[in-house]
Specification:
The structure holds 2 protein chains of 2 kinds.
Chain A (H helix, E strand, L loop, with lengths): L1 H16 L9 H10 L1 H14 L3 H11 L8 H11 L4 H16 L8 H17 L2 H21 L6 H7 L9 H7 L5 H10 L4 H7 L6 H9 L3 H6 L1 H6 L6 H16 L7 H6 L5 H18 L6 E6 L5 H15 L6 E6 L3 E5 L5 H7 L13 H9 L5 E6 L9 H12 L4 E7 L6 H7 L4 E7 L7 H5 L8 H7 L6 H6 L6
Chain B lengths: L2 H8 L2 H20 L6 H34 L5 H18 L4
Helix pairs in contact in B: 1-3, 2-3, 3-4
Chain lengths: ~500, ~100
């Protein structure tokens, strides 16, 4: 049991740490997971769909999960296909292309692709046709992808679909007719049409004659999703949103909407804030990120973040700050950030935001040797109890007190066995991991590589647990998805 | 612009309302106990109140604009137009503007 859980933890950790990039980066760990634990991968896909923050993983993993399944794994096949059917048309085309690349490379789907994929795709198109408003909005945003999907599904489509998609014959009073007329409308009428028909930003911008008109900008902001607002904040700043009271009020209202939206990508707002020069707009975006991080939830207990500030470890200093901020914004318990080289620098960061932590730690710099255990020894000496430890380091633990020696002493003194996670960055030879293995200390490892992908970091941090098996249990308890459930959903998915 | 004013600018309308209420309760308690209200507290209350007034005004103007835009597209649907006309009149009243 112990061994199985440990392997499962390792598999889950590997899948979680993958950030942005080409779909190919998912291939090796995905195939490995599917070969060793296909059921775990199936449940992971379902869990990731609800909790994951990296969109590429939602496209690549279901495609990979279709490989190597047995005839008896019908539920896992359906789960993978069902998750693909939750994608937007554009992402579904990307998934289809990735699938083709894999098949061409000899990694074929087990079972008949036509039998599995095409009926589901046909239904994907039909449920949208049955709801004309949904279909219209989908086509408005994803025309090219939708045409491609009709071809792939070998499905001609309804009479209305054929007229709009292939013949460009738009029904009177339809959203397509409105969009076509936007260019010739006076600005206030165009703004009114954008607002009332809820015309998406990317479509409206290209269709109107005066995108910089105040009424049009107002209508655009009013219709923006949280992610659109974040992505376009710099553009809005250029249009003078920060200096016009009404547009600023609209921007503020959109920020409040974004705080309540479940679709906003957690770290995106903070990254966008860094590019904004308007201080108030930047502060609002930072506030939005803090709200979204708090909403991630899932972490409990008191935590120590041990961040390596030994020579040339600037990357782990920054990583330590980010991890501490993400934990501090999610837990109710205490969070201690301890920078270490051969001596600890202890800072309590409970409830602090990243900016506040940055201010408190701005004089920390990389220098000296590495004694990963010194932070833990400090906590033991002070009698501070933590249930979880997150280490940001290259693991080049070369000076006493070393972690694998300090940990048992801490466990004995405090009568508690904290979970331990290593966010590994490139640097010296990692001696921490093998020493912990030899000492029987379970150290969960996330490979951060040379360039930390800050988009995947909230994903990883939100999975930290004070009970080492609870995440795998949580994943296995997430129900597999069925096509019936996906197609019963009448609201707009994408 | 001082630091406090900057902070006030980043708060939401909801937070400003809560902040203003809390500070006013604090001020009332101090007065009740017969003490003099610290000048910092009075300045904070003034900064929050002025920011809140400004922001509520701008938000009402935004709402009015949005309602007018919505009405423009509903010129043929009498019932909805009448409802929006009522809302528009109420907001114009609050803002003291005439059509």
């Amino acid at each position: 049991m112990e061994h199985t859980q440990y392997s499962r933890n390792k598999l889950v950790n590997t899948l979680l740490k993958i950030g942005h990039g080409k779909f190919e980066i998912y291939l090796e760990p995905g195939l490995l997971a599917n070969q060793a634990e296909p059921e775990l991968l199936g449940h992971f896909i379902a869990w990731n769909d609800k909790n994951g923050k990296v969109r590429d993983s939602k496209i690549a993993l279901p495609v990979i999960a279709l490989r190597g399944l047995k005839e008896s794994d019908g539920d896992l096949k359906e789960n993978a296909i069902a998750h693909l059917m939750r994608l937007s048309p554009r992402d579904l085309v990307r998934a289809y292309d990735f699938n083709k690349t894999l098949s061409a490379a000899g990694k074929r789907i087990s079972g008949n692709r036509h039998r599995l994929f095409e009926p589901a795709l046909k239904r994907y198109l039909q449920v949208r046709e049955e709801n004309p408003k949904w279909w219209d909005r989908t086509v408005l945003q994803h025309r090219r992808a939708m045409k491609h999907l009709y071809r792939i599904a070998h499905y001609k489509g309804s009479e209305r679909a054929v007229a709009v998609l292939w013949d460009e014959q738009y029904p009177a009073r339809s959203i397509f007719a409105t969009v076509a007329a936007l260019r010739t409308m006076p600005a206030n009428e165009a703004a009114s049409a954008i607002l009332n028909k809820n015309i998406p930003l990317e479509v409206a911008i290209g269709a109107v004659a005066k995108a910089k008109d105040k009424d049009i900008v107002l209508a655009l902001i009013e219709g923006m999703s949280g992610n659109q607002l974040i992505t376009n904040s710099q553009f809005l700043q250029r249009l003078g949103v920060g200096s016009d009271p009404i547009l600023k009020a609209s921007y503020d209202a959109a920020i409040e909407r974004a705080k309540k939206s479940g679709k906003v990508e957690t770290l995106k707002a903070g990254r966008a804030a860094e590019t904004i020069t308007d201080e108030t707009m930047a502060a609002k975006l930072t506030g939005l990120q803090q709200t979204k991080t708090r909403q991630l939830g899932g972490i409990d207990g008191d935590w120590a973040v041990l961040a390596d500030c030994s020579g040339s470890m600037a990357a782990s200093i920054e990583l330590g700050r980010k991890i501490a901020a993400l934990i501090a914004e999610q837990v109710k318990g205490a969070v201690y950030l301890i920078f270490f080289n051969v001596a600890p620098t202890f800072i309590e960061v409970t409830g602090l935001s990243y900016d506040q932590i940055l201010e408190k730690t701005k004089r920390i710099h990389a220098d000296g040797g590495t004694a990963v255990g010194c932070g833990l020894d400090y906590l033991r000496a002070k009698g501070v109890t933590v249930q979880g430890i997150a280490i940001a380091s290259d693991g080049g633990d070369n000076t006493p007190p070393r972690f694998h020696m300090a940990y048992p002493a801490y466990v004995k003194a405090m009568e508690i066995e904290p979970t331990a996670y290593l966010f590994h960055v490139e640097g010296e030879q990692d001696t921490l991991t093998p020493c912990c293995q030899l000492a029987g200390i379970q150290l969960e490892r996330f490979e951060m590589g040379k360039d930390v992908d800050y988009y995947s970091l909230p994903n990883l941090v939100s999975t930290l647990r004070t009970n080492r098996y609870s995440l795998v249990d949580e994943i296995m308890a997430t129900e597999l998805l069925t096509l019936e459930k996906v197609f019963a959903q009448k609201e707009v998915i994408a | 612009m001082n630091v406090k004013t900057n902070n006030v600018k980043t708060l939401s309308i909801e937070d400003l309302i809560i902040g203003q209420a809390l500070l006013q309760v604090m001020q009332d308690k101090i007065k009740e106990n017969g003490h003099e209200v610290p000048s910092e507290l009075a300045t904070d209350i003034k900064a929050i109140s002025s920011e809140l007034d400004e922001r509520l005004q701008a938000d009402r103007e935004r709402q009015l604009k949005v309602l007018e835009m919505r009405r423009l597209a509903l010129s043929t649907i009498d019932e909805k137009r009448a409802r929006l006309d009522t809302e528009i009149a109420a907001l114009r009243g609050k803002l003291g503007v005439t059509p």
